[in-house]
Specification:
The structure is a single chain. By secondary structure, this protein is mainly α. Helices cover about 80% and strands about 5% of the residues. The chain starts with a helix and ends with a helix.
Amino acid sequence: MLPAFNAFSNAVAGIMLAAGFFFIRRGNVRAHRACMLTAFGVSIAFLISYLTYHAHAGDVRFLGRGIIRPVYFTILITHVSLAIVIVPLAIITLRRALKGRFASHRAIARWTWPIWMYVSITGVIVYLMVYQIYPHSPIASASSHRFAAATTLAP
């Protein structure tokens, strides 16, 4: 259930990012702000859900074969790398806007927006590849074993 929510969150963030870009290009600052704050909030919800899921479920093994494997891992590696980068970039970009420093906001947003959009889109692609297109296999982690042991009721 959480992986589907995570993909949905990424999709909503991507839609809000696209709408925010559309609105700012047309000078509608109010709608731009609403879209970008929504994208930020949804991304926070995603991050909490993602970390919760992987803390309890462990990793997931990609079982695709052939040429799709290097394609998948290229997408995954770039997605994860840029997802790490986007966290501070999004925070800095948002802070500059909220403080009214619009020239510096605009300067960093030129980097933040395409990276954030890429991460949102590739997040959905990774979900589709692992959970919908190819069979998946959870890899149990030590923390998931501890969680299962702690939550199992003894007869």
